[in-house]
Every structure is written in C-alpha cells, then in structure tokens.
Amino acid sequence: MAKTKKTINREISWLHFNGRVLQEAMDVNNPLIERLRFLGIFSNNRDEFFRVRVATLRRLIGMEKNRDQNLGFVPEKILKEAMDLVAVQERRYNETFTEIRKQLQENHIFFVDETKPDEEQGRFVRQFFTEYLRPFLFPIMLKNLESPEFLRDKFIYLAVVLHDSSGNQEDEYAIIMVPTHRFSRFLLLPDSGGNKYIMMLEDVIRFGLKEVFKSFDYDTFTAYTIKFTRDAELDIDNDFSKSFYELMSESLEQRKKGLPVRFVYDNQIPPVLLKQLLKRLRISEDDSLRGGGRYHNFRDFIGFPNLGDSSLIYPEMKPMPHPLLKGNTNILKIIRQRDVMLHYPYQSFQYLVDLLREASIDPQVRAIKMTFYRAARNSNVINALINAARNGKKVTVFLEIQARFDEKANIYWAGRLKEEGVKIIKNLPGYKVHAKLMLIRRKEEGENIYYSHISTGNFNESTARIYADDGLFTANKEIGKEVNMLFHLLESPYTPPRFKHFLVAPYYMRRNIIRLLNNEIKNAKAGREAWAIIKMNSLVDRKLTRKLSQASGAGVKIQIICRGICVLVPGISEFSENIEIVGVVDKFLEHSRLMVFANNNNPLYYLSSADWMIRNFDHRFEVACPIYDPEIQKEIMFMLRTQLSDNIKARLLNSDPINKYKTSAKDGNPMRSQFYLYDYFKKLSE
After folding, report:
1. Least confident among 74-88, 166-180, 225-239, 492-506
2. Count of CB atoms within 10 A of residue 40's CB?
C-alpha cells in the first residue's frame, strides 16, 4: 500500500483484519492444534464476509448511477480488489493447512479418508455409520430438485455420482447434507501403535454410500463436497398489523431463501455434475464460484479435539478470582463500599451470575433491569433473572432481536422471559440496542440505592471465556441514576433526557467525543500536555477520522489499539503523523472499548460499548461511561500501556507491508500482552 494513501476502504481493511487471524494460523510459534483452530476462525470470518459484506457490495452495484458520489467509492472496483485479496489469502490458507497436516503426522496424528482405514478402524467406522449416522442422512436426487431453498448456510453437502460400471444405465446424481449439527466433524478412530487417527464426517458418509443407496442398481459411488453461501441481510417489511417479533421471524425465514453470493466446490467434480448443480441451484457465472480442495467449511476446525501432547494446545488459563470478591462474599455490600471492575477472561464472569442470584433472593432488592445483545445458548444470566421474577422481583429486560445471526435465539429467550412474568421492552425498528447495562434497585433505610453494571461486552458466559472485555460494578448514585434514565429512554425513545455523565448514542456520543478531542487540540496549541489513548474494535466513522487527523496536526499524540477494521492510515506527514495504530490478535479476542484523554494532566477515562462506526453513533443505543475510581483508572492505564508495548502479537495497522509485526523492544524484552496480563491478574488474586 502506498504511503501517501490516507484512508483505506472498510471492506479491504476487514480482509486485512482476517489476514491477521490467518497470520496466527501461519505462526509456527503457536501450538499446532491452536493454529488449526485459527484456520477455523479465519474460515468462519470469511463466510460472514461473503454473507454480509460481499452481499452488500452486490446490492450497491445494482443501485442507480449516482451511487458512487453518495458512497464515496466504486462498488465494482472494491469487489474486484476484495476478490483478488481473498484469492491471495486462500492460497496462503491452503499452504498453511498442508503444512499443519504434515506437522500433525510428525506428532502421530493422522487424517484417514474412506479408502484408508485398517480392518479394526473399518469395523469401528461401519458400526458408527450404521448405528448413529445413517438415520440422519436424507439424500435428494438431483433430478427431483425443484428449488435450492433447502440448502442451508454453514453446512456442507456431498454431491454424489451413482455409477453403474457395467454401463447398463446412465449415471444418477444426488445431494446429501453432512449433519454437523448432530455430530462432530471429526470422528476419532481407535488408537494404534501410539498413533491417533481422525476421519472427517463427510468421509464417514463416503465410506457408507453403498448402504445409503443400496436400493439402487449402482455399484460405484463418488462424492464431492459443495458449499452454498447466501445473502444474510434481513429485509423487514412495514406491515404494522404485525408485531416486531413476527416481522423478525418472517425475515429469518426469508434469510434461508437469500440470493447466493458464493458457491464452493471440490475441483475434482465432473463438469457434467457441476453444470447440473449450477442449473438446479440457480447459480450464475455472476456469483462467486470457486473450485477448491476435497474439504470445505473449515469453521468446524474451531472445535478440533485436543489430541496428543499438551504442547499442541495453549496452556490452560482459568479465570482468576478478583481480590475484592474472594470467598463467600456479599457482592452487593462490597460494591456499596467501592467500585469494582472485572476484566474478562482474566477474571471470572461468574461474579455477575452470583450477583444476580444474590439479588434474586435479597428481600431488600425490588427490581432488576438488564439489556441483552447476545445471550449464551444455555444462559445462567437469563436463568438468574427468571429466578428473580419467580421471587417477586420486578424484572425488566431489553433483548435485542436484531443482533445479527442471533435473532432466532433472542426471539426464543424473549418468549421464555415473558412467560415467566418478565417485562420485555419492545424493540425499536431502525435502531439496535448495543449498550451493555444492568441495574439493581435495592431499598436501604427507606431510600432507593442503585447498583449498576456497565460492560464493554455481552452478558454472555460463553464468550466471556474468550473475549477480552471490561465490566464496571458501581453504586455511584449519579451513574445509577443515568442507567435508570437510559432504561426509561428505551421505553420512550422520543423524549431523550440530558445526561451529565454518560455519552449516549444515537444522540450526542459522536459530538461529545469530538468535544473531548477539541479540548486536546486546544491544550496542544496552548503548549499543554495533550494526548489520547483509544481502544476499539473498528474505526470507520468519517467525521471522527477527520477529527483525529486534525488533532494529529495540532500536535496531539494519539495511540489507538484497534483489532478489526481501521480506515485511517497512521504516520502520514501532515495528516496522521502523530497517530500510532496497532492491532493485537492472540489467544483471546480483543473486544473492549476504552478511551483516555489527557485533559491537561487530569485524565478522563471512559468505558464504552461503541466502536467508532456510523452505525454505532447514528443507529444504535450505546453508552460510554466515565470511570471515576482512581485505582481502576490506574489499572486501565496499566492494561493499555501493556498492550501498546506488545512486541509479539501486535501488528502495525495499514503499514507497508500490511500487518507488519511491531518490532521487538530495543532492550530485547519480549512482551506478549495477553499472557503478561494473565500473570498480572493471577498474582493479584494470590
């Protein structure tokens, strides 16, 4: 990328982010099985890129002629650039998988296909196929296929050729879904001679194809993997006679019929079968077609089993207890005394569940309010809220039905909560609620005392094990008052109150961040200390990008930690020379959003739910909450400085070359921030 380029297209930047994930798979210093899992994460991310971003570009291409002026870019050009980059990453991806397979063999772990099992393994596979797998296989003859709507995203299919070696009848073709929703993609075969063996689920099906088609007069069966990706955007109609839940449910059904955006197939597939598939599945040459290897849908490798020596996986990193919350403590009492911040996954998410359980049976607790964006599949948080409602507490929940790819689960939880007497705040068409808020109202000596929890991440115990987030617990009256105001705002969004402490979107968050940056500009021009440290997942918003550039030009030193999309190119003379941007990709997914402003040597600290994107500032309810506790401020600064010092897993964003690793410190001391922070919190807990 040329040094003079000041910004980068968001779609291309997103692919560069996924390139950092691929780098983790390529990194020979990572444990071998973890490298395989990073290939799975990369594959899953790429699928979502096609389902959402490529689908959006396709839609833009169909817009009117004046679209380029409105968009600021040419969709056809960006789509081509993206597909070229996808092709480059695909080659590296395949090379990496080949290398990892060889190294697995060196560690006595072998993949076995349907042609290679020994006698004992063959008996094992046959028994598994007959007793467990066969009842879930439902082939569809290709000649009978009237519509492609039955093909589901996130699944692979086998396109099967039924052949008669005597030549008495023509070939037939069929499609079988590989039921990875029922079974692991990886069947562990019996060990032999100190070696471990794995057969992919689709190879197990290949092994048993004669059994599947035993009623046909064919003797040879060959299967080729195919994968179908659809446009995942939801079109919601404006039928006001229907509830929002009904509209969302209908839109989810429409997603199953979304237009194809990619079709991937085994490049060994016979041309005649491929031609029939494209015709029957209504896929044109305008869609993204890609021939590849024998195996697809590597997202399943995220769940690759732990095999072999412990050195092949990351060392176990159990969440640490918080020093203030050790033992059988009364959490409400501790929060009443002072603010507490938890840092996931370094510290235990269980404290939040314990707090809700405590509140659910506390006779002085009157009400609990909470927002949800993505809940865990078997959510103990929601179960605790249900228990609170059963114990007579007034429980109010906003559950975001429009959380992409979690809509179905959230509709289920909304219905379940409503059945238990929980008040559900209605969703807001056109807006999403992304703020992560909890409020407990407790009657103490005749006064309402508010206990608040504001987080950068979802109240989800599953993702809290792998997402690096921060959550503030406080009994600060002013903060509690504003959390309560925001819940009232969600119930009546047309009369926004004035917030003194919170920065709230979609109202004034962007404007307030600009005000904070303007303050740094003013201080820099006056010769006073002026800087900002900002951590986020994505930097896209044009107005704030321009303001960052203006601040840089005024002499404000800006350090940004950005995991994902970043459209701003740092280090450009007279544009961004005072801006440094790094991204950390490692064992945990960096997800927290934090802001610190120098404020003339009286730093202002904020914890936020919002990334710096147009959608977050204009189309979502988001909160940035000030951090007032001096000890927590020190802890946040320590964590930010640690990540900025990372010289092992930090990359320089939008550098030349792209995703260049940040060089080691001059003194030679290695700094891997996530592992360093884990050790830090471990020592604090001792």
Report:
1. 225-239
2. 20
Please tell me the predicted confidence (pLDDT) of residue 255: 39
Written as one letter, the residue type at 540 is V
With beta carbons less than 8 A apart as the criterion, state whether 252 and 244 touch. no
Q: How far is CA 603 from the centre of its chain?
A: 31
**471 touches 445 (CB < 8 A):** no
Query: Counting every residue, how long is the chain?
Result: 686
Helix (H, G, I), strand (E, B) or coil at 589: strand
Per-residue pLDDT reduced to its tens digit, 307-326: 988 999 999 999 999 999 98
Q: Is residue 434 flagged as an active site residue?
A: yes
Average pLDDT over residues 442-468: 94
Across 407-502, the runs of DSSP E, i.e. the strands, are 423-424, 432-433, 436-444, 447-455, 467-474
Q: Which of 16, 322, 434, 453 is catalytic?
A: 434
Helix (H/G/I), strand (E/B), else coil: 594: strand
- Taking the C-alpha atoms of residue 208 and residue 204, their distance in angstroms, rounded to an integer, is 7
| Residue 91: partners with Cβ closer than 8 Å, 6 or more residues away | none
- Give dist(CA 343, CA 319) in Å, integer: 9
Q: Note the pLDDT of residue 236.
A: 36
What's the distance, Cα to Cα, between the start and end of the chain in Å? Answer: 48
Q: Domains (ranges, CATH) in the chain?
A: 9-106 (1.20.58.310), 112-315 (3.30.1840.10), 331-491 (3.30.870.10), 503-685 (3.30.870.10)
